[in-house]
Amino acid sequence: MGDLSPFEVPAYPYDRLGGLARLAGASGEVPIDLSIGTPCDPPAPAVVAALAASGAERGYPASIGSPALREAASRWMRRRFGVDIDRGAVAACIGTKEMVATTPWLLRLRRPERSVVLYPAVSYPTYAMGARLAGCRAVGVPPRPDGGLDLARVDPRDAAQALVLWVNAPANPTGALDDLGAVAAWGREHGVPVLSDECYVELTWSGAAASIVQHGVEQVLAVHSLSKRSNLAGVRAGFYTGDPALVHELSELRKHAGMMVPGPVQAAAAVAWDDDDSVVVQRARYRRRLDLLGAALAAAGIEVALPGGGFYLWVPVPPQWSGADGWSLARALASEAGVVTSPGDLYGEPVAAHVRIAAVAPDEQIGEVARRITSAGARLADAAAAVAVSSAGHDEH
Fold it and tell me: Which domains does the chain show, CATH number per domain?
């Protein structure tokens, strides 16, 4: 018989940061929270107007998405990636986090004999949680030195049992890019659907923005979101596209489960996917903030590279800080600069000696953070050394 023990709900990762928030509050500075990737800038006025004036709140919305929404998404795919996708192979989702969390459960209905979800070993925690919610085994794929998936290290037994492979590029938290063509080819070779979470693709800094569907749609889906692109995290609007058969199957199952993007949100999303001008402005904001924070950290003796994409700095603990880990650095930033960040072990134990900093505060706050970090200088190393312990046991409630 299978394991019949009850599921124990783990602590939500970001709920572990309470202690860091208290340290920041006691620092003598007004706390600034850069721990979570919550956009702070205004969405385009036309999008807000569409949200308010659609008249779509009276009736049930189409689960698959309105024709206007799917056509706008298809037009964006053509403009951004040069691929022609019929709106019939596009479907709406309630933001992409729910898509990540629920898709293994839905896919397992068609392949109950497969019980492994492959996902980036260094990643946002929802990939692994989606596997657990589906009753599957979450298997992290180790990163290569460049941050992409090292698929050569996947155990053949896990590949044979794989229900799905997730790839995330640009990646959260590292900002790494990946060879999506090679990932798609691996999935087809092993008979494993590949789902590519591309929610940060508009914030690609190294080279051209890329989507997995540029390498064909067979056995792949690209998952896109307006949260980061258009500052619309609060409305929960995304879409998925790729293999028409896979899109159809998932959209039918989601229809039965009542997964529907609200009608006014669909109307706003159609406008947002047709809007590129506000994205250009937003890209410039994030690039400016990343550069400013990176320069401040360097001035304090903490070297960090600009990410390949995304709006996070993935900050390694300086090697000369003997014994310090990500929690040590995070506590030092909180106590000496009043800044709340995310320690690396929230994204995987192998990267515990890192901190993720989200460049999501308004420009004046980012400037203030940069000033504080520069001013703190060597005090950060001293503060980290004072609390340097292993990452185990650092639930900062």
Answer: 13-42+278-386 (3.90.1150.10), 45-275 (3.40.640.10)
